[in-house]
Amino acid sequence: MEKAHGAPLPEVPATAYAGKRLYLLRHGGKEWLDEDRHSRIAVETRMGHEVAGVEGLYSHVTLTMEQEIADSLQTRWLRFVAGEGEHWKVPSPTALPFNLDEWWKQQVRAAQNLDLNWFMKFITTKSFMPFVIYRILLGILLFVLVGAGVLSPHAGESGG
Predict the structure, then answer these.
(1) Fewer CB within 10 Å, N or C, the chain?
(2) Model pTM score
C-alpha cells in the first residue's frame, strides 16, 4: 500500500462482493417487482427512472402502491429466511413498527400545524443565513451531545 503523509494506508478487506457487478442487484430487484405484477409507474419510480410520454405525465405513485411493494418485498424476505433454516445466522429484520398509511397522515397533520409563512417571508425579503447558521449550530450541538454520551445514536432503535 502507498503511504499518506508517511503512514501506511490500511488494507481494504475483501468482501463477498469482490469482483461482482453490484448493479445486477438492481436488475434482480426490478425482476422481483415485475414478477409480483406491480404498477409500471411504481416500479420505474422506485428504480429512479422517469416514464416518458402520456403514461409518465398522468400516472402517479400512490401510498397503496408503495405499501404493496413493501409488503411483497417483506414476503420475499421472510420466504428466503425461512428457506435458509439453520444456515441463516444473521437475525431477520423486523417488519416496520407502524402502518405506513397512518404514519404518512401523521406527517401531513404535523406539517399542516406548522405556520411557516413568517419564515418564507423572512428568507425571501432578508437573508437565508440565520437558518444556515442555526442548522450548523444544531448539528454541532448534536455531535457534542452524542460524543459526551448524553444522547445515544441508537436511541430510536427497537430492542426486539
Answers:
(1) C
(2) 0.43
